[in-house]
Amino acid sequence: MSVMDRDSIIERLQEKLTERRFIHSVGVEYTAACMAYKFDVDAQKARIAGLLHDCAKCIPREEKLRKAEKFGLPVNDSERENPDLLHGKLGAYYARKRYGVEDPEILSAITYHTTGHPNMSKLDQIIFIADFIEPNRKMIPSLPEIRREAFTDLDHCMMHILKNTLDYLHQRNVVIDEMTQKTYDFYREETL
Ligand code: DGI
Ligand code: FE
Ligand code: FE
Question: Which of 1, 21, 103, 177 is the most exposed place for a label (fewest CB within 10 A)?
């Protein structure tokens, strides 16, 4: 199966996502496309990855865990404790099985859009960043600056977003996936 046309992707996503999550996904699609133009990345790939990155987000938490296990996806301790973290891996699985996406670069961007990973591709970084800065995101004080960085320096922007996310997670006292920390450590070193 080759990748579905956009109209069919939209139709299916509208069934699978809440209205709010659907609007966010289209916001990530267009934001990622703009960033792709800026950084010489395939904008078509950025659009598909952006549209589909949260396609598994609205599955109930416990079902995310059950499905990940059923599909043989690797589940670590923090994902077992917080199955919402699995929506990237599960999303990549559905992108391939249900939306016909075979491109490994798109599947990687979907897989890692929540935690990132060290030494990400430009497409991985674009999806991670577009997810954070798209126009429908709730305003936080550093967002205007992060939005500027998204079009000037991808590595620095990654570091800035991860710093914000880790501060927020520490405040809330929740489990931090070791990949989120590793990604931050990598981009902090990279931007010294
Ligand atoms: O799915 P979205 O809401 O569009 O965005 P996302 O996939 O980046 O998920 C955002 C949430 O994930 C946000 O509340 C921060 C949280 N998150 C990111 N890394 C970690 C994490 N939560 C935990 N518990 N541990 C992490 O390492
Ligand atoms: Fe997400
Ligand atoms: Fe998202």
Answer: 1
Mutate-to-test residue for ligand 1 from 31, 59, 81, 114, highest number of ligand atoms within 8 A of CB:
114
Distance in Å, CA 21 to ligand 3 centroid: 8
Pinpoint the alpha helices (H) of 59-153. Answer: 61-70, 77-81, 87-99, 104-111, 122-133, 143-149
Ligand 3 centroid – CA 116 distance (Å): 13
pTM of model > 0.85 = yes
**In angstroms, rounded to a whole number, what is the distance separating the alpha carbons of residues 146 and 127?**
14
**116, amino acid identity:** G
What is the per-residue pLDDT across 31-41, written as a single tens digit (0 to 9) for each?
999 999 999 99
Nearest-ligand number for the alpha carbon of 91? 2
